[in-house]
Write the structure tokens for this entry.
Amino acid sequence: MGMVRIRRFGIVRTATVAAVLYAVVSVVVFLIIGVPLALLAAVAPGEVGPAIGAGVAGVLIFGLLATVFYAAIGWVMTAIACALYNLVAGWVGGIEVEIEGLPPSGPGYGSPYSPGYPVTGYGSPGYGSPGHGSPSGGPGHGTPGAGVPGAGTPAPPGTYPPGQPGAGPPPPPR
């Protein structure tokens, strides 16, 4: 539907998400490989005696330490990668990604700061919301769906930031 450019990543948040994912992958791999191997070693024939319990405990401790280590290294490497990406994206503009399903953009759509932004459904009573008439006498005379993004009911003056087209006097304090 439209191209979106990724200009920068939040380093700490992205690294934290990656570290959690690395930890989850590490636990899953340990559960699939480490636990069955520890159980097989426990039932293996031989004269091991009480040392087998120490071996199983050692495998479990190793799995825990490996998970923490893998997550920590993943956090550090992701933080470095994000910092490098942010640096390079500042020079060349970043990666472009095509995204489907975004609402249309432009006047009357998607942004509370664009002229013609409808107010209904965003906490302001009246102005095209069901059960209220539009101040312009246009759509919104109790019609369900009137005043939703794209329905053409403009926001009243004063709902835009100062200096934006359509900005009027600021609204009274609540």
